[in-house]
Amino acid sequence: MNKMFLAATPVLEKIEKAGFEAYFVGGAVRDHLLNRDIHDVDIATSATPEEIKKIFSSTVDVGIEHGTILVLFNGQGFEVTTFRSESDYEDFRRPQSVTFIRSLHEDLRRRDFTMNAIAMDRAGNLIDPYNGKMAIDNKIIETVGEAAERFKEDALRVMRAIRFVSQLGFSLEQKTEREMANLSYLLKHISVERITAEMTKLLNGTYREKALKIAIETNIYSFWPTLFNDKSIIKSILSLPIKPLNEIELWILTVYLTDETNSNELLRKWKLPSKKIQFILRSLSLLQRRKDHEWTKYEYYRAGIEISTIVERTYQASRNKDISEIESNIHNIFKQLPITSREDLTISGKDILKWCEKPAGPWVRVIMEGIEEAIINNEIYNEAAEIKRWVKSCHLP
Ligand code: ATP
Ligand code: MG
What we know:
By secondary structure, the protein is an alpha+beta fold. The protein has 4 domains: 1-138, 2-Layer Sandwich (Beta Polymerase, domain 2); 139-224, Orthogonal Bundle (Hydrophobic Seed Protein), CATH 1.10.110; 246-337, Up-down Bundle (Methane Monooxygenase Hydroxylase, Chain G, domain 1), CATH 1.20.58.560; 342-393, Serum Albumin, Chain A, Domain 1 (Orthogonal Bundle), CATH 1.10.246. It is built from 19 helices and 11 strands. Strand 4 and strand 5 (76-82) form a beta hairpin. It is elongated and about 85 Å long. The N and C termini lie far apart (69 Å). The structure holds adenosine-5'-triphosphate and magnesium ion.
């Protein structure tokens, strides 16, 4: 068995010894059956959170209102969630309160898709009342129970379905797809943050092209906040070689193709983290500059290797060019630069102040950049005496 499961097996054993049931559930079981990497193991149990806290000496209440306790065991953390049923969905969103139950089958029934509703005991036996294993073998995503009902309960499942398409390359079962198309408008009740979390996974998925096509066919795209809510934008993206691009690069490319001036506002509507927005905006402004002209060595240096690579990849992708060698090309350019960042300089701002005997001010930065440019262009060596001579000779402001 996978080492993630093995590490969690004593936790299951301990719960069982105390007289309760415990199983592996959800994404870990699905990914295990698919031979995919498992990133976290979820445990479901008949014990209530209070009972779990009595069994283990070290626990953290990470989501006790939903029945989830983090159990710390052998230096690792394991999320243990009490079997629960979710009734009383409000406004097509996940319920405010949950009911703890003792039946595994009931717990599996409230899960979204059959591939996610499989439990596995510590011996590796599957408990699979909704034939999730068969769905996985046939590469099918289908809801547990009546599709319309399930999407009405929680419209986020519409987004989850296509992000799983993107990650796994599976197809949607007919009825599931039909009801997604009928009910995608319910996404308007879902918070942007939750939609964006699924979109991030979608854009990172290997089969994002398939997922984006389904987003158009089912009309889901039209309930997205901005940018991707434009059919022609998605179509132009799909016409480009986007397979190797990562999520950030896809955001950059999308804003670039949208050709709007208010990029900041557009990205804010998706409520992306502001750090991410800043990074995208900086890349975008450099992408515009890249569109104007081939970069000099100094321009690469200023942008840094990470953004240079992203800018070149998105630029060439936007022109329908092969981008498979860009990363190594940019790497080579940087390998040949005498310095790759200010930290590589043999001198600092303090040296400049000492040499020039002037009070500190913005002029130091100007000199510093001059030095960097001169070194990058091989006019001087990155060597203190030579830099000093260069500064003293004629480059004081
Ligand atoms: P990932 O690999 O992205 O973590 P996952 O299937 O584990 O995928 P999670 O969001 O971690 O997804 O949820 C864990 C499990 O909880 C799912 O496998 C599914 O059984 C259930 N689940 C999660 N979200 C919903 C939902 N909106 N409706 C019903 N069941 C859900
Ligand atoms: Mg998970």
